[in-house]
Amino acid sequence: MDISPFFIYMLPVFTLLALGALGSTRRLGFWPTVLLSIVLTPIGGFVATMISGQRKLKRATLGKPKAPSTEAAVK
Fold first, then answer.
1. E strand spans, the chain
2. Residue range(s) defining the domain that contains residue 36
3. Measured CA distances, 33 to 28, 54, 74, 75 (Å)
4. In a domain, 47, yes or no
5. Considering its fold, how many domains does the chain have in total?
6. Residues pairing with 26 in the sheet
7. Whole-model pTM?
8. Is 8 buried (19+), middle (13-18) or exposed (0-12) by CB count in 10 A?
9. Is the pLDDT assigned to residue 64 strictly greater than 90?
10. CA distance 29 to 70
11. Maximum alpha-carbon separation in the chain
12. Is residue 49 part of a domain?
């Protein structure tokens, strides 16, 4: 049985990039997730990424009036 070079070389790379994309929405971020996945294997990187929790959203400024749109100024 001959295993394709794709599965030997590229599948781990795609797995790390997929985990990095998942980590970009988490507190760890893209590159720390990729590095953890290399050090801890992809399964350990996945677990660490999921434990890190969601990234906190920036709060919108409350009470500030919106700037007038440029369309209203043209009319």
1. none
2. 1-54
3. 6, 13, 48, 51
4. yes
5. 1
6. 54
7. 0.66
8. exposed
9. no
10. 36
11. 73
12. yes
* Torsion angles phi and psi, residue 19, rounded to 5: -65, -35
Question: DSSP letters of 6-71?
Answer: IIIIIHHHHHHHHHHHHHTTBSS-HHHHHHHHHHHHHHHHHHHHHHH-BPPPPPPPSSPPPPPPHH
pLDDT for position 4: 85
What would the two tokens of residue 53 be?
């929790």
Provide long-range contacts, Cβ within 8 A and 24+ apart, for 34-38: none
Write the pLDDT tens digit of every residue in 4-53. 887 888 888 999 999 999 999 999 999 999 999 999 999 999 999 999 98
Amino acid identity at 68: P
Helix axes 30-52, 11-23, angle to 10 degrees: 70
Any domain includes 17:
yes
